[in-house]
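Q: What would this chain look like folded?
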Amino acid sequence: MARLILFLLVAPLFAEAQLLEVKQTIYGMDCAPCARGVEASLKRLDGVQAVTISLNNGTAEIRLAPDNRQRLGEIRQRISDNGFSAKEAQVKLSGVLREKEGKLIIEVESGEVYALQQFADAKNVLEQLRKSKAGKHITVAGVVAEAKSTPDAPWNIQVTQLFD
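A: My prediction, written as structure tokens:
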């Protein structure tokens, strides 16, 4: 009974800690059958609600279901499995802002960690976040580079927008 009560108290804290949207740039996808294959593969991932492929732009726009546990790494692996390269991605994610080893991070429910990088053309935004939002739930949008420095490193996200 105590476990159930603990779960009911803690579950809402994680219910919104997730990837919400991903616009993934895909290199090498240049034909309609290729695009359909990537789209079908991405749609089979757990938590994916919708996928829109733009062959002209070389992108996959992925909308994720509430309470999903999808990982950006899995999305990129599916693209690689289809014979293409996943480049940078525009993502929208939500979670609790924390500080770890001097960096501001958001860990989503899937376990992936995103290290927040300074807004382009904004001064002291991360310091303001550190002071006013640490330990609070936030939603951000930003750009994630095509690769991590090491497999265990967090994804670096260049934050472009904060949501209230």
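The domain at 92-163 is CATH 2.40.50.500 (OB fold (Dihydrolipoamide Acetyltransferase, E2P)).
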